[in-house]
Amino acid sequence: MLPQRMKKAIADNPKKLANLIDLVNLPSTLREFVGQSQISHLGCFMRVWSYIKDKNLQDPNNKNMINCDEKLKSILLGKPRVDLVELPALIKLHFPKMPK
Questions:
Q1: Dist. CA 45–CA 8, nearest whole Å
Q2: For the domain that residue 73 is a member of, what is the CATH number?
Q3: Which residue range or ranges hold the DM2 domain (predicted)?
Q4: Which residue has the higher pLDDT, 76 or 7?
């Protein structure tokens, strides 16, 4: 069951939700990281987050910072450290712009 505010957000802007869950053809760098040729924005973010957790890449002193290994750097513009808040925007850069 979805929270009330999420239901309202979906009802107010269904196109925004569609952009998160629609499958998109991935560019080569992201395709190699994810291991699929098509994935949604949300699915891609979940794969990256799962990778970060599996490899224990969160900074132990500051859980909001991610210490990137070489594979993660390849999709996050070569940055050695990324703030957790930046992560969705950096992943979104790989996806093509959706027409309005």
A1: 23
A2: 1.10.245.10
A3: 19-97
A4: 76
